[in-house]
Amino acid sequence: MNKDKIIIDSNLSSFFSLKDVLKYKSLLNNLAKRDFLVRYKQAFAGILWAILKPLISILVFGYISSKINNTENTAINFVYVASAMLLWQLFSSVFNDVSNSIIGNSNLFSKVYFPKIIIPLSSILVCLVDFLISLIILIVLFIISGQSIHWQIILAPLFIILTLINGFGMGLYFATINVKYRDVKFIVPVILQFGMYVTPVIFSTKYYLDRLPEWLHWLFCLNPMVGAIDGFKYALFGGDAIYNTYYFMVSICISFLFLFIGVKYFYKFERSFVDYI
Amino acid sequence: MSNNTIIKVEGLSKHYLLNKSAEQKSDTLYGNFFNGIKNLKNITQKKETQDFWALKDVSFDIQQGDRVGIIGRNGAGKSTLLKILSRITPPTKGRIEITGRLASLLEVGTGFHGDLSGRENIYLNGSILGMTKHEIDRKFDEIVDFSEVENFLDTPVKRYSSGMYVRLAFAVAANLEPDILIVDEVLAVGDAAFQRKCLGKMNDVSSKEGRTILFVSHNMGAVQNLCNKGLYLTKGRLNSIGDINDIINNYLQSGDTNKSDYKLHIPEQVTYGYACEVFIEDENGNSLIEIPVGSYWRIRVTFTITKPTPHFIVAVGIVSSFEMPIRTTWSEPSDINPGNFEAVFYNNDIFLTTGIYKIVIGLSSNVRTFHYSDNEVSISISDAGDIINNKRIINTQSGLILNPMKLTIHKTD
Fold it and tell me: Would B5-21+48-253 and B261-398 be classified into the same CATH topology?
């Protein structure tokens, strides 16, 4: 008989293993399905909210930015804002959901064993489905504004993945702190609210860098979402969306650094979550 | 490690740090606000903590096909042991080797979501318990059959009755196919008939298919029925392990089980007085740790009255483990003067079925209760010690009260 052997040891530590995740694939799917179904249950407009929510912010911020920028082509301005806004909302929902995922599902892992990384991973899936639905807005605006399609568009998925990495890495870090200090649920919305104004969502990176003193440029580009959003804009519209390749690379490196820190920190405390919940 | 050893535990210990200041937590918004400021100030200071060993140096082996009952009083470390074996919490020291697939059932319906339908919950719960989609598909009909809820499969479970909910939840768990099944007191829910069905299912699984079961329960009858081996924990240490009947006898004789005398918590503000102690005794006044099923028993309550009390009543209630009040007995109202008193309530008329019952004690004056205790005292009516001696079998399906009604039969034509 060939059977699994489980060793439980006091100083055994675990780390991310794709094999484990694949073994619990059906749990991952079912958790994501649950969150997705539950989110729109008993809501009159149902899944339409996945479109309405980003649409409203795009309309508001698109209008504001076209007033400030004084652009003659409003449609192009809207599609710019829409692309950045959708990506930002993807980031903010991943960041927020991942950081709350562990305590939100403590009733599960305090009763049954499974790799805990499954929980934040399932949060990502849910956010991703919402995002893909809201992409309809972007496609419609794209057509209305009469944009032509460049070859760079094949790069777009890379920057969507980069956004997920940003939200996941930071989310995991905060999810771990959240287990012990519930202050996180107040801090994350604040970070997101301010974060949007230091990220090229409504305005371009150029707009910010032109107005900021030289020594702040560095700080601005330490924001991992700068790379993701500028890259996404570049993929969709080409041109000079990536204002400064050097800063752009820095921002992308920061993304992976955050991911590394988040995962490392998560696995350091993962095993003892139950004792602090 | 011999061939058939399926679980090997060596020197297992689990340590917790208890916060001493935890008791000072405030429930009010006002209090919380100031605690918050205090916490911020104290952030650099080390909190005063207390060591607590939930498990200390526990070692044992379990062979394949064993059905092990884990017993011990509350706080002995039973649940901690199960949690470590299920990999929910890590041990502080020690090592465990488990061969085979392990599933734990520390709660029925883990992850059930009220907004999802029965069908959706079967898939969700099944996958949480470690089943693949393919396995659930294969077992689906069997699960639905066992749960008896086929007409409501597409109804959200929040609209289920609690009985249906538990049946569906257990049905999923009962159809797991692990090599080792860990079960914690989950049978405390559900009606008696369903409990029996679950025990039967577990018994089947173990005896026919050679699976290993670890079972925690305070119901000695259920443990004795299901298990062939016992593991007895006292204060986090392994007391003994061996044949289930020996272990249960050890446990019952140790006086480590339910108590027969309870010191009640004295209320912070005493108006007229308070109840001090409760004794569970047999007919002759000997203290009883477990009440043998089918026997008479009595409850002796001592209380202290500190000032003259008009229209005084002392009352005792018995509540079943399903929170169903069974009977309440009040004393005749009378005016009473300060002093120490004792009231004896005789249970000389009905026989309750086996199980744990809660005893509620109340003292009142002019119909206003001034001391009320509803979660300090419990009694256990048991056939465990008895069954070894006279093999008497109690059918718990026949009801809570074992006394038959008066019955006559006439020929009417």
Answer: no
Find all residues with CB under 8 Å of A44, minimum gap 6, and list them. none
The residue ranges of chain B whose pLDDT is under 50 are: 1, 22-25, 386-394
Nearest to B111 by CA among A34, A1, A67: A34
Residue type, A83: S
- pTM for the full predicted model: 0.75
Please give the Cα distance from A11 to B346 (Å, whole number).
Answer: 56
CA A10, A11, A15, A19 torsion-angle sign: negative
By C-alpha distance, which of B213, B195, B262 is closest to B64?
A: B213
Domain definitions of chain B by residue range: 5-21+48-253, 261-398
Which residue ranges make up each domain of chain A? 23-276
CA-based end-to-end distance of chain A = 39
Q: Which of B98, B104, B120, B127 is the best residue to mutate to test the A interface, defined by the most A CB atoms within 10 Å of its own CB?
A: B127
B window 111-130, beta carbon within 8 A of A: 111, 113, 115-116, 120, 123-124, 127-130
- Residue A125 near residue A85, CB atoms below 8 Å: no
* Closest Cα in chain B, distance from residue A250 (Å): 35
Is the predicted pLDDT of residue A57 greater than 90, yes or no? no
Q: Are A6 and B87 a contacting pair at CB < 8 A?
A: yes
CB A25 within 8 A of CB A31: no
Are the beta carbons of B83 and A31 separated by less than 8 Å? no
State the DSSP code for B200. Answer: H
Nearest to A112 among B94, B104, B115 (CB): B104
Say if residues A201 and A229 touch (Cβ distance below 8 Å): yes
Interface size A-B, in CB pairs within 8 Å, comes to 109
Q: CA geometry: angle at B135 spanning B130 and B138, to 5°?
A: 150
Name the residue among B349, B345, B278 with its Cα closest to residue B313: B345
CATH architecture observed for domain B5-21+48-253: 3-Layer(aba) Sandwich (3.40)
Is B188 an interface residue toward A (CB < 8 Å)? no
**B95 to chain A: closest CA residue:** A9
Q: Name the 3-class secondary structure at B357.
A: strand
| CB < 8 Å to A114, chain B | 128, 130
What is the CATH topology of the domain spanning B261-398? Coagulation Factor XIII; Chain A, domain 1 (2.70.50)
Lowest-confidence region among A92-101, A115-124, B20-29, B59-68:
B20-29
Could you tell me if the ipTM is greater than 0.85? no
Return the residue of B nearest to A36 by Cα.
Answer: B116
Distance from CA of B120 to the nearest CA of A (A): 8
- Shortest alpha-carbon distance between residue A130 and chain B (Å): 19
